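Incident log, structure service

09:12 report received: a user says their structure output differs between two submissions of the same chain.
09:20 pulled the input from the user's history:
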Amino acid sequence: MAGEKDTLEELRTKYEKRLRKSFREEGVEGASSEEAKPLTSREYAEFKKENMPHQLNFYEKLCNWSEKVLRITPDKKKVAKLEEAIKICHLEITPGGVTSCSLLAPIVLAFSIILVTYIIPSFLVPGSGSMFFVLFAIMAALGIIIPLQKLPFFLANNWRMKASNQMVLCIFYIVTYMRHTSNLERALSFAAEHLAPPLSLDMKKVLWDIESEKFDSLKESLDDYLQTWRKYNMEFIESLHLIESSLYETTEGRRLDALDKSLGVILEETYEKMLHYAHNLKGPLTALHMLGIILPILGLVILPLLVSFMSEVKWYHLFMLYNIVLPVIVFYLARNVLSTRPTGYGESDISETNKELRKYRNILIPLGKEQLRISPTLLALIIFIILFIIGASPIIIHIAKPDFDLAMTDKGLTVIDTPTHPEATYYFLGYRNEVKEGQETGNLVGPFGLGATILSMVLVLAFGLGIGSYYHFRSRNVIKIRDQAKALEKEFASALFQLGNRLGDGLPAEIAFGKVAQVMEGTLSAKFFEMVSINISKLGMSVEQAIFDEKRGALVYYPSNLIESSMKVLVESSKKGPMVASQAVINISEYIKQMHRVDERLKDLMADIVSSMKSQIMFLTPAIAGIVVGITSMITQILGSLSLRLSELSSQAEGASVAGAGMMGMFGTGVPTYFFQIIVGLYVVQITFILSILINGIENGSDKLSERYIIGRNLLRATITYIGITLVVTLLFTFIAGSILTSFAAT
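09:34 re-ran on a clean worker, output below:
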């Protein structure tokens, strides 16, 4: 009865204020100063400020600044579509700002690149500026104009994907609440409280539009919001319309049937859409695999020969192609694949919604009763800086002492002060005289040495282990807690069913928890219910306190929005009597079973695709790339030595033949193995990062916690696998090349 009185009091106050305003009675005698003010709410504005992604806030500022600097009128045909995309993302920008940003940002980018790579170097050292970077800056600026113009649509698709991943849970929360309290406004507020952004932000916006009097009724506000999903998710609209229709049913049975039907509709449609998505996914993923992995690595096999015969090709040309252009293309294709993913049963980062769990983002080291917290960012930076300095040491040594090198000869390791040594088989740094058209230019190029190549692998480790350790340690503790809560969720349906039966037998909730804990002894559900029972019996807490208390409540140890919402419904419905609570809990258990059944079917659909991509990340890509680097090291060593030997023969023979001169002109210096390995290694790290995002998106939808964990795990494994294979193959092929060159020198 207390719950009904609170609801009636809220409704009375709300509509009394609205009637006062409509009849202009705010200023009459007796009206309080609070009532005289227009009805406004800062809840949505504060919620948006806290939960809007930082990159969207930055994009807002960039668009608004661009519109002030360079005002450009957008195409009238695109204005309506742009406004729709902007509305979906809750961005406070205009179509004119988007258009201005799409032109001004490329101009600033191109000028910045040209300034750093051409103007400043040319000013400091005349003639040192590179026209390649000027052309690259212009091409990059032209290339990003259209993507920037389409960025609101991309952000809207990304927003839809994140929101659609929460729609099944949204309908579940609304239906669960409305089974015992037929109030749609309170049900939407209940859903918004338990959902994570962005769908919670949408629900808050629907309610805020009524409070701010943009719409006169909840139906108008909700219908306006649902229009944004008409092209993309009809099952969500159908489900909410069924929920709305339940408000007008004349009998309780028909009302409950409409609510049950709404959840059934979205679950069935979700499965059908995901089935089509899985069937249509093979083509795009095959294209992505060919463009992102197979063709680039096949190109790497050919590149060593190409750069050895074309002295104009430098290592930074390959860096631009493999570490900037290709990853951007692959990432764009991957996001397009994910943008078509239908509604799913998604998870959220519990450390975002539960502030008490944010400490678990750190590395926790127990020190007696206290815990030492180490930030993953600090650890990742330390790992990165140490490994980066070690990996960059060949460059640092050469800059500090250009003539220094170590050579392996028959006498052992020897310090040399010239680029080459007549008896040397292997070099530590291995800088060479640059050869163009068969002639030495006098410039030193490198490092080509075996020691430098091995140290270059440490530099790749800096990126792979640095980034991987950050993501791994940031998500490791939190995902353990969530996995424990998910394990509880799997068996929670049967536990709720038993709890509902005990309540239906007339037992009060305080006793029912203990009875169910005894029956289910040895399970996680039993531990949860036992904790609630102990809080009630020994600490004298109420049922609500025993579950939700911030320090001792059972939910502290099992943080789950699904369990929390189920328990809130239990507490609310128990106010109306044990039979109402019993029926509410039994229905929740059935809903949870249905959702998990669909979730498992969705995972089965994606299993083949996901397992194939995982094998590519874990072994195939690192293995192929490692073998390519080893072969490249051997080819570069042989061709470089041949080029130097032919150059020496040319200088010794005064009358060299035209054919000999032509042969010498075929060989260039080539790309240093040090830089080549870094380019390939960084590409492996980048492609692993991108494919990890794709795997998580396909399998789990927009689940940021799972994404961080998968990225961290895959980066650590793929990087170590790549380095191990590359090290073994490089040493093997280098020794083979050394024996070939030794036998060649002997002849």
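09:41 both user submissions now match this output. Likely a transient worker issue. Closing.
09:42 reviewer note: The chain has four domains: 1-39, 46-149, 282-479+599-746, 480-597. The chain is about 75% helix and 5% strand.
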